[in-house]
Amino acid sequence: MEIKVQTYLDAVDTGQYQVQNFTADAADFAAQEMAANLRTMFDTFSAQVATGALVHSELTINDFKVELETGIINLPFANNNRVDNFYADLNQAVPVVVNLIVEAPNLNASAFHIDTLGPVDQIGDAMFEQMCVLVQAAWTTAQAPAEAPTTNE
Hints:
Strand content: 25-35%
Order of helices and strands: EHEHHEEEEEH
Strand order of the largest sheet: 2-3-4-6-7
Helix content: 25-40%
Number of helices: 4
Distance between the termini: 57 Å
Structural class: alpha+beta
């Protein structure tokens, strides 16, 4: 699936994309239900993408967020105003990709991480498994106690 850069920018700017919100209990998500929760989100996202729609899907577990977004570069919809900086020709058709975004206070210094999982044309079990590995790693990092700042005395 391809989209013209300007068409993408206009659609995101005007909110012309599908929005899906999911929630999960932290205890269930941490135990055996992580893959099941992610599968529901991924399958719903995939079904919307198959219709040709741009999509933002979000799974919230307390202050830990997992998001899937269609994109044309590894920037979230929230940073749409920066996307055109990467393209000389806004009428150029480019592949639509799946971005995995994770937000959590203890994740890293920015509390944010984004990975491009691949083109939407390759949505399938391999992409789902890649997503699960990345989310599991982020979840483990985010659940670890924050390190106390070091001081030079």
